[in-house]
Design goal:
The complex is a heterodimer of chains A (about 170) and B (about 425). Helix content of chain A is about 50%, strand content about 10%. Chain A has about 170 residues and is α+β, with helices and mostly antiparallel strands. In chain A, strands 2-1-3-4 form a four-stranded mixed sheet, with helices on one face. Chain B starts with 20 loop residues before the first helix and ends in a 7-residue tail after the last helix. By secondary structure, chain B is α/β, with parallel strands linked by helices. The chains are: A alpha+beta (about 170), B alpha/beta (about 425). The structure holds flavin mononucleotide (FMN) and iron/sulfur cluster.
Chain lengths: ~170, ~425
């Protein structure tokens, strides 16, 4: 039994020099390795797109943290992705101010256009759709965010345009 | 003493890049740092206390008084943490301050750190606020280069480092003890109080957590004085604050106005009233975790005590207007879904109660609810009442529900009998 587990269990990958450089920089901001752990997960995700088991183990090893504890942290925060995501992550605000201005039907529009529900990624790995708590742009509701960009006062037509533009970007 | 009428937003012009340090200084910026460095820290704290500045993060506690609970320096590290996690549904004021005048926050951080003798400050910024992140990074860099941050600030004995921390998400991180856990790289469950963070916070050291807007008020108080700050308020209040409106109004947005301004002035004069064809049914006065108020409450001044007497909380003072064509049951269902999703999972009434509450609201909204569900929902608000849970998330979630059950009782019953009659969702 133990053999089987050992042979399939993921192993830490080697962190890249860029990742290590940034993690070392974060160490100057926080006095304890545990605090750097969460930062390191963000760094790894920035370069890899998500946090794989191999990445998580690598961070734990590098900072001498318990992998289980780091996993508990990684799964707590919704901006740490423990599964692969598409090239563009659509963070869709469905909190109350956007809801009052009709975001439910807009979500339906995205879902039928892309053929994905919350938490899913399109087959071409282009888009992942996730909900996000109130984006703090309620006077311009409904809104969504992709990467650094917030798209405001959404309509179905605007959403079509956003999707077309993002596809063209790739 | 003379000073600006709108100290929080005087440098803000939508569409224009935020002031550089030079521009900001030319507009009277960083005066409070020089002044505070020449004062006894206790005198800085006293001025902030006397100004009557109340926390702008939702609870409204006197800021100077909060600072006074920090013990005297013992040589070890002490922390100031700025809460820039802004995720309360319907709240969009800190975004404005951080994106458009980042130096005001940086100046506030330095002056406040002098007051409490902090050696390290963190700005805890929600991860989605990318424009604010960029603006603050630039402002912090400039402040270091100009000797306002780092060792021996402006040639004094006072040293301070400021780190911008971008959060990895979750609404609960805005709760100040959960925020401290998140900064420490832990799961962001709240901590037991006491001890309060002022005594034992970040890494067990004295820590003050304040909202972005609270800290942005500090430079003015120290630069222009307590009397000036007091002269800004109306209806017996001091200072200004940022209030705003979302929903189907003519001109949604947020604006700086005297503390003590009425909801009506905000709603009618600033937001222009409802869009044609819509009427106000009710409004949430300060975020998703406040009790609904009715049009008859519009003449209340936005003062925590007055709003409490009317059965709600001022909260963040950004109001969300529920119009007559949007279903109140659906609105509450949406709020319950939010809170159920954002529960940190620590205690039972919240972790288990909220998903159940959401489920019952969903049944009602989709026409499969019963009178028993309404009774059960009443019961839920009691389980989630203050004192029954580890933090204020669940009691906050109960507020729109309990007030909704009171104000829209007929609509709850109608949903049981006939289902939902509203078209717009
Ligand atoms: C669930 C929850 C979320 C909160 N979110 C925020 C927030 O995003 N920003 C904020 O300033 N305060 C938030 N607070 C209030 C903080 O706990 C704290 O009271 C506040 O930051 C204190 O700052 P102040 O005294 O300057 O108002 C939240 C509280 C709770 C219970
Ligand atoms: S009330 Fe909710 S969010 Fe607060 S500690 Fe309990 S489970 Fe966590």
């Amino acid at each position: 039994m133990s053999n089987i587990i050992a042979s399939t269990a993921p192993k830490a990958r080697a962190l890249t020099p860029e990742e290590i450089h940034e993690i070392e920089h974060e160490k100057t901001h926080y006095p304890y390795a545990q605090a750097v752990g969460l930062e390191a997960l963000k760094i790894v995700q920035k370069y890899q797109g998500w946090v794989s088991d191999e990445s998580l183990l690598a961070v734990a090893e590098y900072l001498d943290l318990a992998p289980d504890e780091l996993e508990g942290v990684a799964t707590f925060f919704n901006m740490i992705f423990r599964r692969p995501v598409g090239r563009h992550v659509i963070q869709f605000c469905d909190s109350v101010a956007c809801w009052m201005l009709g975001c439910d039907s807009l979500k339906g529009h995205i879902t039928s256009t892309l053929g994905i529900e919350y938490g899913e990624t399109t087959a071409d790995n282009m888009f992942t759709l996730i909900p996000v708590p109130c984006l703090g742009d309620c006077d311009k509701a409904p809104v969504l965010q992709v990467g650094d960009v917030v798209y405001r006062n959404l309509t179905p037509e605007k959403i079509d345009q956003i999707i077309a533009d993002l596809r063209a970007q790739a | 003493m003379n000073g600006p009428k709108l100290p929080l937003t005087k440098n803000i012009e939508i569409g224009r890049a935020p002031f550089t340090l030079a521009q900001y200084q030319a507009a009277g910026g960083y005066v409070s740092v020089t002044k505070a460095l020449a004062m006894e820290p206790k005198a800085v704290r006293e001025q902030v206390k006397d100004s009557g500045l109340g926390g702008r993060g939702g609870a409204g506690f006197n800021t100077g008084l909060k600072w006074s609970f920090v013990p005297e320096p013992d040589g070890g590290p002490r922390y100031l943490v700025v809460n820039g996690d802004e995720m309360e549904p319907g709240t969009f004021k800190d975004r404005l301050l951080m994106e458009y005048d980042p130096h005001l926050l940086v100046e506030g951080v330095i002056t406040s750190s002098i007051a409490i003798q902090a050696s390290q400050a963190y700005i805890f910024l929600r991860g989605e606020y990318k424009a604010a992140e960029k603006a603050l990074q630039q402002a912090i860099k400039e402040a270091y280069e100009a000797g306002f941050l780092g060792k021996n600030i402006q040639g004094s004995n006072f040293s301070l480092d400021l780190c911008l921390h971008t959060s990895a998400g979750r609404y609960i991180c805005g709760e100040e003890t959960a925020l401290i856990n998140a900064l420490e790289g832990k799961r962001a469950n709240p901590r037991f109080k006491p001890p309060f963070p002022q005594v034992s916070g970040l890494w067990g050291r004295p820590t003050v957590v304040n909202n972005v807007e609270t800290i942005c008020n500090v430079p003015g108080i120290i630069s222009y004085g307590v009397e000036w700050f007091k002269s800004l308020g109306i209806n017996g209040q001091t200072g200004t604050r940022i209030s705003g409106v979302s929903g189907r109004v003519k001109n949604p947005g947020c604006w700086e106005m005297p503390v003590g301004t009425t909801f009506r002035t905000l709603f009618e004069d600033f937001a222009g009233g409802m869009l044609d064809g819509y009427e106000m049914k009710a409004f949430l006065p300060g975020g998703g975790s406040t009790d609904f108020l009715l049009p008859e409450h519009l003449d209340l001044p936005m003062i925590p005590g007055d709003v409490a007497k009317a059965g709600s909380r001022l909260g963040t003072s950004l109001i969300m207007v529920l119009d007559d064509k949007t279903c109140p049951i659906g609105c509450i269902e949406n709020l319950m879904k939010f809170f159920a999703h954002e529960s940190c999972g620590w205690c039972t009434p919240c972790r288990d109660g909220l998903p159940w509450t959401e489920h019952m609201m969903h049944k009602l909204e989709t026409g499969t609810g019963s009178m028993e569900d309404i009774e059960r929902l009443e019961e839920m608000t009691r389980y989630m009442a203050p004192g029954n849970t580890f933090c204020a998330l669940a009691p906050g979630a109960a507020e729109p529900l309990q007030s909704g059950l009171k104000h829209f009782r007929d609509e709850f019953i109608e949903h049981v009998q006939h289902g939902c009659k509203y078209k717009q969702h």
